[in-house]
Amino acid sequence: MMENLLYIRQQAGFSEWLRILNFDPSSQRDMPKLLGEFLAFLESHGCNSLSQIQESHLQNYLHELSDKQGKTGGGTLSLNYRRKHLQVIRKFARYLCESGQESFAVKTRIKGETANVKSVLTRKEIAKLYATTAESPLGLRDRALLALYYGCGLRKSEGLSLNTEDILLEKELVLVRKGKGYKARYVPLTGSNKTELEHYLNYGRPYLGCGGRESALLLNIHGKRLKTAFERIWKLRSASGIKKAVGPHTLRHSIATHLLQSGMKLEQIQLFLGHSSLESTQIYTHIVDEL
């Protein structure tokens, strides 16, 4: 439990910064908690101001995490979870810098294979998901959903926030108005992705909407905005026989990995995904090396 008032205020400021920049709700919920663990560690080791932070503090913190038991009691914290802690520390340093406060450098890296490689689907597995969709209005919506999350690489909140007016078929673009950090961007919409969305708009959505005035692109069976895409994708995954965990972000990981395998430059993938820094995109180079 932290007692340092400075750290408590900085944790609250970091939480508000995540909210203002429109980070995913799960990030807004989890990142301040992980930051609190790091700040509590600093406090317990006599580091009571950010100006005192040394690289050794970060290394000792990660070393302590490597010995910490997981919540299930089945062993120590996973490599990926420790990477998440380090990512939060980097985000906190960025928050301090962007808000004009004294910040600190984060040079520490965690070596080893990423756990994300298990959640990247192959092209054959993607084809299985499409093949599992039904020939019905809901099936058309499911294919549109796959086109958005795999074909366009959208974040889960970006896809659910889309309205019909954001699908620019003539210009072959999707306008993402509510990206991370409230940054809008255009995503290319071509080939089968365009076809799937066009078919859904013409033949699937009118049936689901029942003539209502709902502006949302993705509708549920009651004609209202779809609140979650995970459940539908999970059902497709189960029906297809795929054993890996699959969700909207898995599809985003997969398209990024496939684009990199196809020779697309990292800078282009960064723009496609809407990453604010190239560092976020570089993780896919590690995934490709491990496949």
Short description:
The chain is mostly helical and 291 residues long. The protein is built from 13 helices and three strands. It is elongated and about 65 Å long.
Task: Give an overview of the whole structure.
There is one protein chain. This protein is mainly alpha-helical. It has 2 domains: 5-112; 119-290, hpI Integrase, Chain A (Orthogonal Bundle), CATH 1.10.443.10. It has 13 helices and 3 strands; from the N terminus they run H-H-H-H-H-H-H-E-E-E-H-H-H-H-H-H. A 3-stranded antiparallel β-sheet has the order 1-2-3.
What attributes characterize this protein structure?
single chain; 291 residues; mainly alpha; hpI Integrase, Chain A; 2 domains; 3-stranded antiparallel β-sheet; 13 helices; 56% helix
Strand content: under 5%
**C-alpha geometry:** elongated
> What would you report as the Rg, rounded to the nearest angstrom?
21 Å
Structural class: mainly alpha
Task: Domain count, please report it.
Answer: 2
**SSE succession:** HHHHHHHEEEHHHHHH
| CATH-defined topology of the largest domain | hpI Integrase, Chain A
